[in-house]
Amino acid sequence: AEAAAGEERAAGEEQEEDDDLGYRLFPERNKQPQSFLARSLFTFHNRCQVMLRMTLDTNPHARLLLEAMKQSGCTVFNDRHFSCENCDSCVGGGFDSATSQIVLCQNNIRHQSQMNRVVTHELIHAFDHCRAHVDWFKNVKHLACSEIRAANLSGDCTLMNEIARFKFGLKRHHQTCVRDRAIRSILAVRKVSKETAEKAVNEVFDACFNDLEPFGRIPHSKSDAKRAYKDFQNRDRYNANL
């Protein structure tokens, strides 16, 4: 029995070593932070910081999420909760739940619209982390739910973005895009089979796709996001008067 238990522990340790939980995509997570002087010499870092500030100041998706997190007791601070870093070429950003920090891939984010989407996507993960007991590392259904919500609400699946990906389907196209991108995100950060990722997404899809907090609607456009932001502010004022 002791030998069997030892083998199980060894197998578990080997599995943990094999699955790095997505950190291979963000190599700078395990390095010592650079000094301000060193960072200032890199154009990518400066550009990332400028675009981040523009997103946080002007983008209605991001502003709504920041206010919603503050109401939930999770105030977001630029210097503490965002980090511009070099990443693997296949990702634009990530949410590190261990540090409650959003990683922005400065070598891959090239346009302001892309920064807007990445920040919004990762802020949705941060919002879920704040409001719910999400088991990011051991429960693939929890990860699937947040990925569904992020794909659904961040603008990842707008018609223009899908056309840019050369995908032109019309019938239930938004749902198909959300499902596909959630599966892709899971496979990027977890060493699980495609069948496992698809099963997790399918099992939670309806409930998580219809969870529209804090937007209250699917913001298909910037004007939708602006209306959602106004509705959220009005809802806040109404609740304050109760």
Automatic annotation (TrEMBL):
The lineage of its organism: Eukaryota, Metazoa, Chordata, Craniata, Vertebrata. One of its GO terms (cellular component) is mitochondrion. The keyword Mitochondrion does not apply. GO terms for biological process: mitochondrial protein processing; mitochondrial proton-transporting ATP synthase complex assembly. The keyword Metal-binding applies. Residues 1-20 are annotated as: Disordered. InterPro entries: Peptidase_M76_ATP23 (IPR019165). Residues 1-12 have a biased composition (Basic and acidic residues). GO terms for molecular function: metal ion binding; metalloendopeptidase activity. It comes from the Eukaryota. Belongs to the peptidase M76 family. This is Mitochondrial inner membrane protease ATP23. Keywords: Hydrolase, Metal-binding, Metalloprotease, Protease. Its EC number is 3.4.24.-. It comes from Eudromia elegans.
